[in-house]
Specification:
The complex is a heterodimer of chains A (89) and B (958). Chain A has helices at 35-43, 84-87, and strands at 3-6, 10-13, 17-22, 51-58, 63-70, 76-81. Chain A is mainly beta and 89 residues long. In chain A, the strands form 2 sheets. Chain A has a 4-stranded antiparallel sheet, with no helix packed on it. Chain A has a two-stranded antiparallel ribbon with strand order 1-2. Chain A starts with a strand and ends with a helix. Chain B contains 23 helices and 52 strands. The N and C termini of chain B lie far apart (96 Å). The chains are: A mainly beta (89), B alpha+beta (958).
């Protein structure tokens, strides 16, 4: 069982967390978004080996945040709270 | 073998407390502190098990967790525990132990004849032979004669196992000399320490190997050390196995209790771990080395010193290393006639008194049938023996190190894999780090493991020291006879050679081809010999052959430990209604719906009760508990913008005090949930989502809020559990509600359909929402949950004069289906989009952005062959359709599904069956009759509009 650092609650067991998706998968708004772009947003993921940036949610406090970790070694490099201003556009 | 209990001695046993139990029906007597194995040896029981494949007689090999042979099924007062190791299972008064894989018992097994055909059934025989027509035809019979203990189908849990979490600075695994020293050094330096050991008492090898530490006998040093650790706040657990190490150095421990309690699971998060799990003695390779009476030399010493059991009168001790010298001396000292065979010629340790030494020789074979009778050396010398104690070298117990992804380094000098590059947070000490070494070196490695300088606090060995010399003794290719490598899975040297001939030379292929190391002992005594032989056959070194992956658990852990309390009702606890007791008093029959325990109907006769409730609900007035409906409040300056984005329908145009029905979509355009949105104020909404979707809708709202809107723009609060919602529905609902005097106008002009009113029941505020899931005039009255029972009672009082009926969820399902109202996930599936349900408006007209919008215009979404919601009518007098039945067409003789029945009931009000379904292009095919197939039965149904009752909606205001 891995340990993740919730930016709000600190170090917790992974069972308290839920995977939210790859970070930086910005939603394209509008009716004229191409099918390819929309399909990419919905379904296409990089699934890299090694360093990854992901959105996770700490179920017990409800907060989403960005976690940088290594998908091979499971080393957690950093966790930062979701910057709403950055995503609001 | 003529083993016996000595008249005195035995550090582990209490002669004042005799213990009697049975083994294969025979009475065995022992003492408290005995294991099943030590008691069997004391009673000279040689054959304790039959081997997995060939049903060979097998005796006790070891004295600990590594035991490959002596597996027993143990019945206590409560249950049968299968496949426990007799060497670790304490002897308990009255227990019944039974040998595994033997009929009727281990001593005379009727399947023993199989061994005579062994040469015809080598490794992989079954898989090669029983391929045609299908292995699965033969598998049951083959499994019946090959196997281990039997599962007790009547097993009852003695209760939930405790699960404990703990943090500490240092976890030390193994309370032998190195582990004790490391734990004490860390504890006295102020660290919080946990020391665990799988044996019943701390000490490890010190419990049966003679030594003197800091000028004291080992037993005294152990006691002082344990006391010192405890005095500094450390926790010392015996009978506790560290069975696995997981991500970020989580360590799983399983603690056994001697008092019948279920085991305890510990999840420990130490900052650092010291692994001092010692080493396991290997067998020597010679023909018939599996005969009962051939055992680990260290085990023979352990039985002598701990249990006062002398394993034989004429003992041959065979070794390739120094550790067996003490064994030979001790056995001779206890009165046995001892011959020591050392394969080495020189650099030998001092020979103990009373022992004959034959140096530079090997055992070539052992003889005997049901127990060993003697051995033949490689020069042809015959020796008689009733016990052969062997030491083929020591394998460091590095399982946890490897589980933590530690890499191993091969040591030719030690003839063993040793821990290689260090793993973060883990240090290895003692014999686990180096193999068997003098005690003083073990203490030094303990000190460096806890990063302490070796100083006056580090214990010192002050007695005579055993040295650690060893010479490799691996199986030799082409050796005569049957040289057993894996006792538990019946793998011989010939099987390994066969695997090599057939090119299964990769270590992983070798394992699977021969099953080497795949038994319950996971090859603790056998793996290395198998690897070495494979290397010799294929011209590779042992490290070139490599090792297989070490996986938890180190020893079997009861599933009950992992389950803990999460069993039975607690496996997935149901959510309960605030007024469940009131429902029970009314005779409600409960069922689980979407995680909620809800009244299905009232009264025992289900079919009659449901029909009766559904019929009467339309006649006068029905009372229904809708408390499970979601009540998620959305507040804040951007609340209106937020619900516009979340919902398929435009919601910001809703006036305060009004309600609107709408869909929530997933981003892929599929209808995720439906329900009523209530606008309480300009910046305050209540999302009334489906009962079973509350958690997931709440999670989605939070995700979009945090991702897109920001925490100061919108605030979300799930108030579902705080409020109860009691529904009054039917033509007389307004009359009933008027009698409650809720302090608000029920006039249709002031409280029309899809409006809310605020009132008061006694001293508490109530919210009355005029919405309907039955198609009749309905009022949902929400009140704080702890006052709901009083309101429910008042509603029933007022309903008496109106012939009110209390309805359960099943009747409600009929009422809503009569109206063509859907249940998401029942009348929709993972492809259903809003326009499939006839709600086309927002898709074609809405300009703003909302969740799932773009997906409603993909090629699939605009396809002309989508499945659409319809009603399905059957001919008069026919039974209701089966839910799940498929509408079919025939194309070129092949049957093709064109959709399916999603809901089907008998409507008491319409006096005919009704059904809803998703049928291809259904919306444009009303009036068409189609074939419906279910389990081979073909029926006809006519496609209709979904609504079968009161299509004009007049009853909403009746």
């Amino acid at each position: 069982m891995q340990l993740f650092h919730c930016p709000f609650c600190g170090q917790r067991d992974e069972t308290e967390f839920h995977f939210g998706g790859e970070a930086g998968n910005i939603r394209p708004d509008g009716a004229d978004v191409t099918s390819e772009r929309w399909a990419s947003y919905l379904y296409l993921r990089d699934n890299p080996k090694g360093a990854v940036r992901e959105v996770w949610v700490h179920m017990t406090c409800g907060e989403f945040f960005v976690m940088a970790r290594d998908s091979v070694s499971h080393h957690v490099a950093s966790t930062t709270s979701l910057d709403c201003a950055e995503h609001a556009q | 073998m003529t083993a016996m209990r000595l008249a005195s001695g035995g550090s582990a046993i209490d002669r004042a407390r005799p213990v009697t139990f049975s083994f294969d029906g025979r009475t065995v007597s022992g003492f408290a502190g005995d294991t099943i194995a030590s008691a069997l040896l004391a009673n000279d029981v040689a054959v304790v098990a039959r081997s997995f494949k060939y049903h060979r007689p097998r005796g006790i090999w070891g004295a600990g967790v590594e035991e490959p042979n002596a597996l027993v099924d143990v019945s206590g007062s409560v249950a049968v525990t299968p496949n426990t190791r007799a060497t670790t299972e304490p002897a308990v008064e009255g227990m019944a132990a039974r040998s595994v894989n033997a009929q009727p018992n281990a001593a005379s097994d009727r399947n023993a004849f199989i061994d005579r055909f062994a040469r015809f059934i080598p490794a992989a025989f079954y898989y090669k032979t029983f391929m045609w027509p299908d292995w699965h035809l033969f598998e049951p019979r083959i499994r019946a004669v090959a196997g281990l203990g039997a599962v007790d189908r009547d097993w009852q849990s003695p209760g939930p196992a405790d699960q404990l979490n703990r943090h500490c600075d240092l976890l030390v695994v193994g309370a032998g000399p190195a582990g004790l020293a490391a734990a004490r050094l860390a504890a006295t330096a102020g660290q919080s320490v946990m020391l665990v050991d799988d044996q019943p008492a701390p000490g490890g090898s010190l419990r049966h190997r003679a030594s003197e530490i800091d000028g004291k006998p080992a037993s005294l040093w152990i006691d002082e050390t344990v006391a010192a650790i405890a005095q500094h706040g450390g926790l010392v657990l015996s009978s506790t196995t560290a069975f696995g190490i997981y991500d970020h150095n989580l360590v799983g421990l399983n603690q056994r209790h001697g008092d019948g309690r279920p085991d305890t699971l510990w999840r420990v998060r130490p900052r650092r771990i010291v692994l001092a799990a010692g080493a396991i003695e290997r067998p020597l390779p010679f023909a018939n080395n599996d005969l009962p009476g051939i055992m680990s030399a260290d085990a023979a010493l352990s039985y002598l010193r701990r249990h006062a059991v002398l394993v034989g009168k004429r003992v041959v001790v065979a070794t390739n290393n120094d550790s067996a010298y003490e064994v030979a001396g001790a056995l001779a000292g206890a009165g046995a006639d001892v011959t020591l065979i050392d394969m080495r010629k020189d650099a030998l340790p001092r020979l103990p008194g009373g022992v004959r030494l034959v140096a530079g020789r090997l055992i070539a074979s052992a003889r005997g049938k049901m127990r060993v009778e003697g051995v033949t050396l490689d020069d042809g010398t015959l020796l008689d023996a009733d016990c052969v104690a062997v030491s083929g070298g020591w394998t460091p117990t590095i399982h946890l190190f490897c589980q933590a992804r530690g890499k191993l380094a091969w040591s030719e000098q030690r003839a063993a894999f040793l821990p290689g590059d260090p793993v973060e947070g883990i240090a290895v000490a003692g014999a686990a780090a180096t193999g068997i070494v003098p005690l003083s070196e073990a203490f030094e490695s303990a000190a460096s493991a806890v990063a302490a300088d070796a100083n006056e606090a580090t214990p010192r060995s002050t007695g005579a020291e055993a040295t650690g010399g060893v010479m490799a003794a691996w199986p030799i290719p082409g050796a005569k006879g049957r040289v057993w490598i894996d006792y538990q899975n019946d793998v011989t040297a010939k099987d390994v050679e066969l695997a090599a001939r057939e090119n299964f030379i990769s270590v992983e292929h070798l394992k699977r081809y021969t099953t080497l190391g795949m038994a319950t002992d996971q090859g603790k005594t056998s793996n290395l010999a198998g690897l070495a032989l494979m290397g010799a056959v294929t011209g590779r070194t042992v490290p070139e052959v490599g090792t297989t992956t070490y996986r938890p658990p180190f020893t079997p852990v009861p599933l009950a430990s992992f389950v803990g309390v999460r069993t039975g009702e607690l496996m997935s606890p149901v959510r309960r209604l605030p007024i469940e007791n009131a429902h029970r008093q009314q005779g409600a029959v409960f069922q689980e719906y979407g995680g909620w325990l809800r009244p299905a109907h009232y009264g025992a006769d289900a079919d009659r009760a449901i029909q009766d409730e559904a019929r009467r609900a339309r006649q006068s007035v029905a009372l229904f508990d809708g408390s499970t409906l979601g009540k998620i409040e959305v507040m804040g300056p951007k609340a209106a913008e937020f619900v516009d984005f979340i919902y398929y329908n435009t919601m910001s145009t809703l006036k305060p005090g009004r309600c609107r029905y709408g869909f929530m979509l997933s981003e892929n355009g599929v209808v995720f949930d439906d329900g009523i949105l209530v606008r309480l104020g300009v910046n305050r909404f209540v999302v009334s989502c489906s009962s079973s979707h509350v958690a997931s809708v709440h999670a989605r709202l939070e995700e979009w809020r945090q991702d897109r809107f920001g925490r100061d723009a919108v605030y979300i609060h799930n108030a579902t559990a705080e409020m109860a919602t009691l529904t009054v529905s039917g033509p007389n609902s307004r009359t009933l509600l008027s009698a409650l005097d809720l302090g608000l106008s029920l006039d249709d002009a002031e409280l029309p359909h899809m409006a809310i009113g605020e009132g008061r029941f006694e001293q508490d505020p109530v919210r009355v929402a005029r919405v309907s899931f039955t198609g009749d005039r309905s009022y949902e009255v929400s009140i704080r949950a702890d006052r709901a029972e009083r309101l429910w009672a008042r509603m029933h009082e007022a309903g008496k004069a109106l012939d009110a009926v209390t309805i359960g969820l099943e009747a409600l399902m009929i009422l809503r289906a009569e109206k063509g109202y859907i249940v998401i996930g029942k009348d929709t599936d993972g492809t259903t989009m809003p326009h499939d349900l006839g709600v086309e408006g927002p898709r074609s007209k809405r300009a703003g952005e909302y969740v799932g919008r773009r997906s409603l215009f993909t090629d699939v979404a605009v396809s002309g062959s989508r499945q659409q919601l319809v009603g399905l009518a059957v001919a008069p007098g026919e039974q209701a359709l089966a839910t799940g039945a498929h509408g079919i067409t025939r194309e070129g003789g092949r049957i093709k599904s064109q959709g399916f029945v999603t809901s089907s009931y008998f409507s008491p009000t319409l006096d005919r069956p009704i059904a809803l379904g998703l049928i291809e292009r259904g919306a444009s095919r009303h009036g068409e009759t189609i074939d419906i197939q279910h389990l081979g039965m073909l029926r006809r149904a006519t496609i209709t509009a979904p609504c079968a009752f009161d299509a004009s909606g007049a009853r909403l205001n009746a």
